[in-house]
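User: My collaborator and I are trying to settle a disagreement about how two of our proteins should look. Neither of us wants to argue from intuition anymore, so we agreed to look at predicted structures for both before our next call. Could you fold the first one, then the second, and keep them clearly separated?

Assistant: That sounds like a sensible way to settle it. I'll keep them separate. The first protein:
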Amino acid sequence: MAPAQRVGSGFFPLDEELGVLPGSLSPQSQDHLSRLAVWMPFEQAAQMLAALCGVQVSEATLRRQTYTAGAAYEAVQAAQALTAEDPGDGPPADHLVLSADGAMVPLIHGQWAEVKTLVIGEMAAGQEVGEAQCTRLSYFSRMSEASLFAEQATAETARRGVTEARQVCAVMDGAEWIDGLVDLHRPDALRILDFPHAAQAVSTIGQEAGVQELTSWLTTQLHELKHHGPAAVLAEVSRLCATLPLNESMRQQYGYLLKREERMQYAQYQQDGWPIGSGIVESGNKVVMQARLKGAGMHWAPAHVNPMLALRTAECNERWDEATQHLRAARHAQHQLRREQQAWQRLRQQVCRTLLQRVAQREHDSPPSAPLPATSSPPPTKLVPKYCWRQPFLRRSACAKQ
């Protein structure tokens, strides 16, 4: 019996109809392992998957599947940011709050990098003065440069209707990259300096100046700043800076406050129902990034941070089911493209083999060519024996006549 011929990999036609993804795991199992890995370390996620679903996978397989899913969903969000066609969460709110900040994530080889997080929330209705509260928080996090981060966040700001909202405020710590972010998405947003950052600057000036009874002095200044505005506080810190004009730290903190005087009208902000602190993004850093990426002994490869953040924000925004649909569609498209490329490659190889076989067959079947007849060359012409070529010209002529 002749041995069976080798065959290549193929696919079952019902795979497309049933939505089966490449690999040995079912779509539901792949979804479960990615979702568990978003909340806990990979080893624990593998153990939990085995305990809950009876599916045995290694830690390496779970890690690889999670990174693949995260990279695919990151590409989906990048495409949404370019087209800005992502459907919104309903009619835009009247009052939205933006807040952004950065936090450090540990990388391999002892390196650290900044993860930027944008939080968008709605102002709760029926609040008393000075008790502003944000609801329906959503997050967007990436480890990227400031300008690229602002562009990548377009999908989330479009979804939340930042450009359509009637009023938007941005509570920030005064960093320039946050101003650039707000300029891109809502240039007319009301900008508020985070009150704890302003308080920290006032406290530093009091400490450097050696103020007596610093606690009492600081309490008075912060009460004045919060309930009456920055005018009296700036006058007081200016007086302290004049006593120590060469103190560079005091000068920097005073310049920080003076430059942001218009953003410290806290009495008016509270009267209008706006928050004066960036607590939503401080907690957002903990919820989105630190709770999963800053565990004990964790160090991440740079290429794995954003895929994990993409999945993490999908879960924290309570959009996992929607993200799974986009993810499966993207992975099916990638698989279809890969299969078409392989089919074209096999076709090219088959065409090349066929051409080579025909050339070899033609050379084998063609008769040998007849040898060309030999051509006889005329004999060399010899000189006449009586030719006197060594004689002078005149004598040669006479000799030739003989």
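The second protein, kept apart from the first:
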Amino acid sequence: MNTNNDNIWIRTFDLFTTPKILSGAAALMLVTTLLLYAVHMMQLPPLEGSNGQTKTGDYFAFYSGAEMVSRGLGGDLFNLDAQQALQHELAGEGEWAEWNAYLNPPGFAILLALFAPLGFHGSFFAYDALCVLLFALAAASLKPHLPQLTRTPARTLLTLLAVLSLRQVSQPMLMGQNTTITLSLLGLAYAAHRSNRPVALGIALGLLSYKPQFLLPLLPFFVLRKEWLAVGVAATVSLLHYAIGALVCGWDWPWNMLDALQGFVPDQRAAQVHMSLPGAADVLFSPPLASLVTLIGCAAVVWVWLRAFRQRAWERQAFGAGWALLVLGCLLISPHLNYYDSGVMVLPVLLLVEHRLTVNSEPFTRGERLWLLLLWGAYPSWSLAEHLPVQPLLFVLLGAFVWAARLVQRGTEGALHEAPAIG
């Protein structure tokens, strides 16, 4: 009897993990999500008198930074009191449940200042358009380097629907976060490397200086590989970013930004929205133990990277899995990683699936399909953080990192035949 029941469940699982069913489910999720976002954006309140409830994700923080730059107040860009005062001025007085500070390097605010004359809502939609265009450019650049996932029109459609139907991808793209920009730049960097375009690779890496937690770990990797042209271009773009920021915000803006981060991020971590090792350590432990645990966790990630590098795992055929390991490690050790930044995980997961299909022509096992379904559907678990000691998406990220490490360790010798244990 149990065997029959098991067979029924297995057959049902097999049925619902077929490409046709998955494509239909992803298409339904995507259409429903886009309709909900469309209704939401049609009901955005006017900025004045909105009592701080602008309902545009992080974009109000980005807009306040852009406004400070456009008003010639760049020197106060990382003054939290000045930022909060400006946000009160823009959104109106009244009940103010919470506020969000601008904490990115100044280049991002300087770019968005170009949209400031359009007003808050106009600049918000212009920013959305920029995110969509950048994502489309990254997707088009990646397509030739994902031959297994885009081998037929049906596979291409399934891959695209599977990505776009993820809320952690569509929400940042349309609702004011910057995850899409980070995801797209990492994708463009990978595509440039595979296309042997070191200048384009360097530009993509240099633009990641707006998210230093990615640039600082990635650049030494290319130094170790002696890809000097890409490193030189990336360093030039990064120095240019610093110089432009110095002109607008003063030469000491990096230190001012770090001071602002130290004053603001701990409050966010207390709300358990962060999904990185440093964020979890700060929630679970008190100083100085939290710092020690963070150091040990980050050292473990770097050790996995160096071990893989010594094993020459980043040869051309296995570079996709290696890049996935690097990106997932950057997410793990990031000092500032919100739950919606899990959208960046989409790129490494795609590269790992591509690697799996390349090195092993056998169909995915049920364990692998279950693991991928969990990766696809795990995002809503972020809301359980208020009932748990840490953000549950951290365990999903750890599982993906373990998967990447196993694939890289095997290199091109074989494939993963069973999915890693989660958590």
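Some points you might bring to the call about the second protein. The CA atoms of residues 243 and 317 lie 38 Å apart. DSSP finds 19 helices and no strands in the chain.
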